[in-house]
């Protein structure tokens, strides 16, 4: 029972439900009959999309239930910049918390691409 139906058969549904018999989810709610609320801009921190079950499917580089963390090898939320030692830093540096390279001794450049 997701609403109140009068003697005329017309039903007034609770917030999460819709339909003539309150047997479907209202806009912004997913996965009948649980009808979980999901809005990409808020529930998924604008870093993902709502799935058919009302959970978030995060964009590349983002993770967490609400897409409010950086995935592995991504740094500096909410920017979530991709960085790996082998690719971004050419094997001659490490990724810092900003997602940029801190070069090993004797290497320089934004991607540690120069002998220093």
Rg = 24 Å
| Assembly context of the chains | single chain
Rounded to the nearest angstrom, the distance between the terminal CA atoms is 72 Å
Q: Describe the global form.
A: rod-shaped
Biggest sheet character: 2 strands, antiparallel
Q: What proportion of the residues is helical, as a percent range? A: under 10%
Q: Strand fraction band?
A: 25-35%
Characterization of this structure:
Helices cover 0% and strands 33% of the residues. The protein is mainly β and 116 residues long. Strand 13 (93-95) and strand 14 (101-103) form a beta hairpin. The chain is rod-shaped. The mean pLDDT is 95.
Could you give a quick summary of the protein structure above?
With 116 residues, this protein is an all-beta fold. The protein has no helices and 16 strands. The strands form 8 sheets. Strands 1-2 form a two-stranded antiparallel sheet. It has a two-stranded antiparallel ribbon with strand order 3-4. The chain has a two-stranded antiparallel sheet with strand order 5-6.
Layout of secondary structure:
Blueprint: E1 3-5, E2 11-13, E3 17-18, E4 24-25, E5 29-30, E6 36-37, E7 48-50, E8 56-58, E9 62-63, E10 69-70, E11 74-75, E12 81-82, E13 93-95, E14 101-103, E15 107-108, E16 114-115
Antiparallel strand pairs: 1-2, 3-4, 5-6, 7-8, 9-10, 11-12, 13-14, 15-16
């Amino acid at each position: 029972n997701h609403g109140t139906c009068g003697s005329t058969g017309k039903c007034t549904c609770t917030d999460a439900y819709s339909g003539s018999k309150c047997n479907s989810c209202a806009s912004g709610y997913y996965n009948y009959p649980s009808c979980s609320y999901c809005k990409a801009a808020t529930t998924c921190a604008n870093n993902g999309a709502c799935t058919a079950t009302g959970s978030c499917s995060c964009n590349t580089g983002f993770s967490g239930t609400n897409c409010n963390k950086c995935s592995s090898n991504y740094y500096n939320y909410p920017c979530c910049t991709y960085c790996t030692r082998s690719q971004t830093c050419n094997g001659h540096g490490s990724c810092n918390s900003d997602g940029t390279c801190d070069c090993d001794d004797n290497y320089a450049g934004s991607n540690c691409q120069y002998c220093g």
